[in-house]
Amino acid sequence: xxxxxxxxxxxxxxxxxxxxxxxxxxxxxxxxxxxxxxxxxxxxxxxxxxxxxxxxxxxxxxxxxxxxxxxxxxxxxxxxxxxxxxxxxxxxxxxxxxxxxxxxxxxxxxxxxxxxxxxxxxxxxxxxxxxxxxxxxxxxxxxxxxxxxxxxxxxxxxxxxxxxxxxxxxxxxxxxxxxxxxxxxxxxxxxxxxxxxx
Length: 198
Ligand SMILES: C[S@@+](CC[C@H](N)C(=O)[O-])C[C@H]1O[C@@H](n2cnc3c(N)ncnc32)[C@H](O)[C@@H]1O
What we know:
By secondary structure, the chain is an alpha/beta fold. The protein has a single domain (3-195), classed as 3-Layer(aba) Sandwich (Rossmann fold), CATH 3.40.50.150. The protein is 30% helix and 31% strand. It has helices spanning 3-12, 23-29, 46-53, 65-78, 110-119, 139-142, 156-162; strands spanning 36-40, 57-62, 82-86, 98-104, 124-135, 167-180, 183-195. It has a seven-stranded mixed sheet with strand order 3-2-1-4-5-7-6. Helix 3 packs parallel to helix 4. The longest helix has 14 residues, at 65-78. It starts with a helix and ends with a strand. The relative contact order is 0.15. The model has no long low-confidence stretch (mean pLDDT 96). Bound molecules: S-adenosylmethionine. S-adenosylmethionine (SAM) is lined by residues 6, 17, 22, 41-43, 46-47, 62-64, 67, 88-90, 104-108. Residues 6, 17, 22, 41-43, 46-47, 62-64, 67, 88-90, 104-108 line the site of S-adenosylmethionine.
């Protein structure tokens, strides 16, 4: 999907996703010492706003202006500051290295996705952390929600292999509970937490 398609999707409702942080982002970031962070493909900035509330200086990058408008509103409501950057993650580069990169549910075709993932280790300071969560390919058959196109879903080994030079602490297909009108459903996410060696 291009920026126009994402803008159209974000324009349809108030907040498309939850305004709460993703459960895995929360779990793996809450013990970290705040510093500089990037939320890549931040959407409506739920994770960026949560991080900012914990003292992080967050740059939220997305190519959807509509999503970032909502993100700025969410930040204002929460009384926190988030720097928003409207840019395409396939070409965007940060000004300098950071302590944390969060990537949640970025959907790109495999070739483009692996090219973006391959750049992430270089964005981290020594000791810095990457938290990546995404729709796993197995979710299509065995999980709930998420895109039906396997090309934009993640595969664990391929994802880890793209993160050259990082120490991988967590690499799993994680179950995420989703409340639906028909009761609880389980979504299957690729989850990787990795650190740049000091
Ligand atoms: C499923 S949403 C996830 C948003 C957010 N990370 C979250 O977890 O709530 C995917 C986001 O990726 C953004 N996105 C997709 N491709 C992108 C690209 N090439 N450059 C920048 N943003 C992109 C979309 O605009 C959308 O906001």
